[in-house]
Amino acid sequence: MSDQPRTLVEPSRTTPVHGEFDVVVVVGGGPTGRMAATAAARNGRPTILLERYGYLGGAGTAGGLSTFCGLHAEVHGEHRRVIHGLADELLDRMAKLDGLAPPHLTINDASRRRRTTSPHTRSPPAG
To answer: Using CA atoms, how far apart are residues 94 and 88, in angstroms rounded to an integer?
Structure first.
């Protein structure tokens, strides 16, 4: 077997351009879409965020999911947050509101280990 990766040759095509616009259009108001729209707007670009549903948040909002998966990883045996930038701002704001649980393992199998950060609602005080 060759050490060279397999390749796929695709035919070229002509794609019509129907206009040029000085605006960034972000499709989808999930976490990634919101971060993309925020980054574009902060860099001075006119920005439109399109979402087909009546709310932002993507699957997390639709399904009541309470985790931010993929922000943390085991790097050379050490737990680290590996996604930064706007994610730092979001998590810092949530932590100040006491709305964030510490990262925790979601899979105990070391070969497939992932860490996730969970927003949480504080339990009411006892008594």
So the answer is: 10
- 19-23, 69-73, 118-122: segment of lowest average pLDDT: 118-122
For 117, counting Cβ atoms within 10 Å of its Cβ (0-12 exposed, 13-18 middle, 19+ buried), the class is buried
Of the candidates 75, 73, 122, the residue with the CA atom closest to the CA atom of residue 95: 122
Show the DSSP H helices in the chain as ranges.
31-42, 58-62, 86-96
pTM of the model: 0.62
Q: Tell me the backbone φ, ψ of residue 36, rounded to 5 degrees.
A: -65, -45
pLDDT at position 46: 97
* Tokens linked to 42: 């902060």
d(CA 116, CA 112): 13
How far is the C-alpha of 25 from the C-alpha of 34, rounded, in Å?
A: 11
Note the pLDDT of residue 27.
96
